[in-house]
């Protein structure tokens, strides 16, 4: 079994650990390095995984997953490179850090050491994530396949060229937050119309789950599915008219544009 070291046991690190364990990955093949002692204890208690230093975790791992904030990548990499990285053993670094290009890693690693950049999202926690992979300069097909096989256990996997990863981050990396925001707003609106919060929440959650399942399983596009809900002169048309009048579509264009720009900026500043 592939031994995986997760460096950084924060939100996405936890989602990955939980998703891998849920999908049948063995606890003994996972090790976590987490800077905060309190957080490391929480992770060990919750998942039963070994928590240790960055050096020890990396030493015994086939795949070293960097799940620290972009600004902490440099320091974590310095700790990793204190051990003797073993290209011959096909060790591999997988970076989940938003914005940070593989070209920032490669010069700091032994010559030819493979790096794969990945933009995951938190639904991997429930096996419904999407992980978008881009190989660095030295990552070969077998490295990509290894990462694909690990991450396909926690959701879908897509491969793109690295220059698309900032856009990917704006769409699917940050994407769950947009849906949660819409859910919050719809629940509040339901409460505003007199429903109890429990009833409004149950209705919104199941409407999202059902709509997501339709988008996933139907041959029809999002627009066609929406048209099917929109009876002529009816309630949906009245609601959609208000959403468009308030600029919801333009707001998404601007929001994803801002996320894309921020991803690029984080890559530049993560020195
Ligand atoms: N959250 C998400 O939905 C997604 C996040 N990402 C990317 O994943 C990365 C992590 O994000 P997220 O999980 O949200 O961030 P968090 O801050 O929740 O988690 C990062 C964790 O790493 C710890 N840490 C920092 N430096 C080290 C180190 N040298 N060794 C061990 N642990 C360390 C931090 O400790 P401390 O807080 O004490 O510094 C923190 O607990 C980011 O680069 C982000 O861009 C990508 C896709 C989605
Ligand atoms: O907000 C962030 O920067 C990270 C990257 C994608 C999702 N969360």
TrEMBL record:
Pathway participation: Amino-acid biosynthesis; L-proline biosynthesis; L-proline from L-glutamate 5-semialdehyde: step 1/1
Cross-referenced Gene3D superfamilies: NAD(P)-binding Rossmann-like Domain (3.40.50.720), ProC C-terminal domain-like (1.10.3730.10)
Main function: Catalyzes the reduction of 1-pyrroline-5-carboxylate (PCA) to L-proline.
Keywords: Amino-acid biosynthesis, Cytoplasm, NADP, Oxidoreductase, Proline biosynthesis
Cellular localisation: Cytoplasm
Organism of provenance: Rhodococcus cercidiphylli
Enzymatic reactions: L-proline + NAD(+) = (S)-1-pyrroline-5-carboxylate + NADH + 2 H(+); L-proline + NADP(+) = (S)-1-pyrroline-5-carboxylate + NADPH + 2 H(+)
Residues of the Pyrroline-5-carboxylate reductase catalytic N-terminal domain: 3-99
Record-annotated Pyrroline-5-carboxylate reductase dimerisation domain positions: 162-266
Key word Amino-acid biosynthesis present: yes
This enzyme's EC code(s): 1.5.1.2
Name of the protein in its database record: Pyrroline-5-carboxylate reductase
Predominant location: cytoplasm
GO molecular function, one term: pyrroline-5-carboxylate reductase activity
Signal peptide: none
InterPro entries on file: 6-PGluconate_DH-like_C_sf, NAD(P)-bd_dom_sf, P5C_Rdtase_cat_N, P5CR-like_CS, P5CR_dimer, Pyrroline-COOH_reductase
Similarity comment: Belongs to the pyrroline-5-carboxylate reductase family.
